[in-house]
Design goal:
By secondary structure, this protein is an alpha/beta fold. The chain has seven helices and four strands, in the order βαβααβαβααα. Helix 5 (about 135-145) crosses helix 7.
């Protein structure tokens, strides 16, 4: 699949963002329910993977955040979520839960949700979010079908590559469907034992790997 030109609701590297400022950053927003389990794990694993691939603690201009549709504002992530992050060598420090607000959706260039219900809730908030909102597993499936050679080279910057990736994924939606409805879901481990948290952590990690590879052009270390 070739990365297409910019579509409605999805910016390209030459446009301006909020208040007419240049879009030199790219915001990834991970969304779950309480913002204490799935989305914190996904946020911090994404940051960890980007820093590892790029050798850049600032993630090449990518800003990775999270929030919850029923977010526990100011709450720490669940202890089992911290343990899962430690398993992967990712940093769990300083996290505070957030409730999903309109401003988070407005500022996000890519919204990745845990479930289809979360995706629908984000889209229902408006702000032309439909073309940039996917479940995590849906986005992974679409990204796997995109030819990396059609994306801007890393020399053009991670931000330009990320914008092209979202446009290409949006163009594929509707053509590359999930085998089952459940295939696009990451189930909630809240209140579950550590073993289930670890299985969800593995699921998230596996889903993120091709996404981060496509964003950076750098595969995971063997």
């Amino acid at each position: 699949m070739t990365a297409p030109d910019a579509g409605r609701g999805i910016g390209n590297g030459e446009e301006t963002g909020t208040f007419g400022l240049p879009m030199t950053n790219f915001r990834i927003l991970h969304v779950s329910t309480g913002n204490v389990c799935r989305s914190p794990i996904t946020e911090r694993l994404t940051r960890h993977a980007l820093a590892d691939r790029l050798g850049d603690p600032l993630w090449g201009g990518l800003i990775v955040e999270s929030a919850g549709t029923w977010g526990h504002e100011g709450a720490p992530m669940e202890a089992n979520a911290e343990t899962v992050l430690a398993d992967f060598g990712a940093d769990a420090s300083g996290f505070m839960g957030r409730e999903l607000l309109d401003e988070h959706v407005i500022m996000a260039d890519l919204v990745l949700t845990a479930t289809r219900d979360h995706r629908q809730q984000v889209i229902s908030m408006g702000h032309s979010a439909g073309l940039r909102t996917f479940t995590l597993k849906e986005f992974t499936r679409l990204v796997r079908a995109i030819d990396p050679a059609t994306l801007p080279p890393l020399e053009d910057g991670v931000v330009a590559r990320a914008r092209a990736l979202v446009r290409a994924a949006a163009a594929l939606r509707g053509w590359l469907l999930a085998p089952t409805a459940e295939a696009d879901e990451v189930y909630d481990p809240y209140g579950a034992p550590l073993t289930f948290f670890r299985s969800i952590g593995d699921e998230i990690h596996q889903a993120l790997d091709p996404v981060v590879t496509a964003l950076t052009g750098v595969p995971a270390r063997a």
